[in-house]
Amino acid sequence: MGLIDDAPRKSLKRAGAEERLSPPVLMLLQRRFRAVRPLWEDMMETLLLDRNENQYGPAPACYKVLREARLEQLSLYSRAYAAGIKSELSDRLSRELGIPERHVLLSYGSEDMLKQVVHCYLHAGEMILLPRQSWWYYQAVAKEVSGRHVHYPMHERAGRFEYDVDEILRLYGEHKPRVILIASPNNPTGNSIPQETLSAIVDRCNESVIVLDEAYAGFNGNDIDQLRAVLAARKRIVVLRTFSKYFALAGLRIGYACVGEGLEQLISFSARYLGYNQLSEKIALAALDDVDYYAGITREMRADHEMYLREFRAIEGFTPFPSDANFILVRYPRSTKQALKQGLEQRGIIVKFLDDPTLEDCVRITVGTREQNARAMAAFQDVAKNVLHFNLRSSSGLEAS
Ligand SMILES: Cc1ncc(COP(=O)(O)O)c(C=O)c1O
């Protein structure tokens, strides 16, 4: 290994050091990167707004659980089965949702639950329907079992994306897919599926297993009533949820599925006989208890979502899409992609530039804390004005100088 290993060089490059510093200073920083790292980070903290993490962090009660962790949570297996349940958490969720405890399955993030559902139901050569614009991982998981996929379109109408129920029903008739995946809110388009559209799909596509990915539920209003109604209809549906996003516990890796009727195979497939991660469960329960904390940070994020909409609409050539999640999708003039990306990186802002052919001219920005959002928005405005030489109207509609 040489004196300068690649990771520090890449980090400095990403932070824009090459353009800002003279070569001798840059070389010194590269060589002494480890020693100067705290200083460097103070000078130019990189903002990672590319993976839809909840930057406010979890409720204070979650840290308290960690501080007070006991031997039983760390060294012993759970004895919840003696009470006829899988865990305290699945029991609590089942009571909140009005479904039997055995219909709540816990997993290592909702990513794990998605994998379990697909591995359980999709066999080689069978078909899964996926949204055209969606999380790349759906396709990857289908490939793991040699499944085939067909995309259904997500239409852009009046400045937002929408599900097309007729097209989903048509594709269902044509392909008789084993699994239909719906994401609400969808990543990266941010739109949700209306209750009646979902009901029409669940009612009519009754030979498929419907998987509803609700990883981003909760960021735009109380969603629990809608979920209860979906489950009360007792259909062949699996709803995937997570503590990663709304509850800001992505590092814990705790997700779950709410299983509808006629899906016993999945319940057996996911059975774990030695219980779940007891510390994670306690932290998740503490999060569920602190309703006010999460309502408070969600209000902040909604206000900043409005700020992003307003400010992006004021930049020539930029179109933001309203979102029900903790991220926002923004379209920009495609020819500026490299300059925009580089300009933001030089200002320490990392956001997700999409590669999907239908969204090649879009960037997805995680809505962070108040301070982070202000910094990210200012960086976009600075690059638009001083690098791309675009006009900026003030968000009140007046031309900014
Ligand atoms: C749409 C969607 N579903 C599910 C997940 C998985 O989240 P987790 O495994 O942390 O629950 C993600 C992660 O970003 C996502 O974007």
Topology:
Layout: H1 6-14, H2 17-20, H3 23-31, H4 33-43, E1 47-49, H5 60-67, H6 71-74, H7 88-97, E2 104-107, H8 109-121, E3 127-131, H9 137-144, E4 148-152, E5 154-157, E6 160-163, H10 165-175, E7 179-183, H11 195-204, E8 209-213, H12 224-232, E9 237-242, E10 255-259, H13 264-269, H14 278-289, H15 291-313, E11 319-321, E12 327-331, H16 337-346, E13 349-353, E14 362-366, H17 370-386
Pyridoxal-5'-phosphate binds at residues 52, 109-111, 135, 183, 187, 213, 215, 242, 244, 250, 255.
What structural keywords apply?
401 residues, alpha/beta, Aspartate Aminotransferase, domain 1, Aspartate Aminotransferase, domain 2, seven-stranded mixed sheet, five-stranded mixed sheet, 17 helices, 14 strands, binds pyridoxal-5'-phosphate
Mean pLDDT: 90
Ranges where pLDDT stays below 50 over 5 or more residues in a row are 1-5
CATH topology of the largest domain: Aspartate Aminotransferase, domain 2
- Beta-strand content: 15-25%
Heteromolecules bound? pyridoxal-5'-phosphate
Overall spatial form? globular
Rg calc: 23 Å
Largest sheet: 7 strands, mixed
How many strands appear in the DSSP assignment?
14
CATH class of the largest domain, named Alpha Beta
Question: Can you list the strand order of the major beta sheet?
Answer: 2-10-9-8-7-3-4
| Number of helices, counting only DSSP H or I runs of 4 residues or more | 17
CATH homologous superfamily designation of the largest domain: Type I PLP-dependent aspartate aminotransferase-like (Major domain)
CATH architecture of the largest domain: 3-Layer(aba) Sandwich
What percent of the residues sit in helical stretches (DSSP H or I)? 40-55%
Tally of individual domains: 2
* Helix/sheet category: alpha/beta
